[in-house]
Write a structure and sequence with these properties.
By secondary structure, the protein is mainly α. The chain is about 90% helix and about 0% strand. The longest helix is centred in the middle third of the chain and has 32 residues, at about 70-100.
């Protein structure tokens, strides 16, 4: 019983901590937001005794602290958006070709690929604003 109460309390505290970190991280942008997200993930991994994940995240945090600049991060994110825009254009072209063949199976397949590419583009565009 004691273990269950402790686990429930821990879950409640973790949820509160996440909402606090998420609110604070929303106010941050660029490298500061990236560092805050990695620090949050480290805390989560530590809370769940995931030693290997903590080690990997700590290496990522160290790398971010050493090398991240807001200008560099912005350029990376802009390049990713351009890459995803190109992918969407390619998928639209593939869909057009499938429509010309008239194969419903190919059309459905290409529509799914286009939808996936558009989701990836939206995610890249969202990252650009953070």
């Amino acid at each position: 019983m004691k273990h269950t109460v402790t686990a429930g309390l821990f879950t409640l505290v973790a949820a509160f901590a996440y909402s606090s970190v998420a609110s604070a991280a929303d106010a941050l942008t660029g490298c500061a937001a990236k560092r805050a997200e990695i620090e949050y993930q480290i805390g989560y991994a530590k809370a769940h005794n995931n030693v290997h994940q903590v080690a990997g995240l700590q290496a990522a945090l160290d790398e971010t602290v050493r090398n991240c600049t807001d200008d560099g991060l912005l350029r990376q994110r802009q390049a990713k958006v351009a890459e995803k825009q190109s992918k969407v254009a390619e998928r639209e072209h593939e869909l057009q070709n499938a429509r010309e063949t008239g194969s419903q199976k190919k059309i459905k397949q290409k529509e799914k690929k286009l939808a996936s590419a558009k989701e990836e583009l939206a995610e890249a565009q969202q990252a650009l604003s953070h």
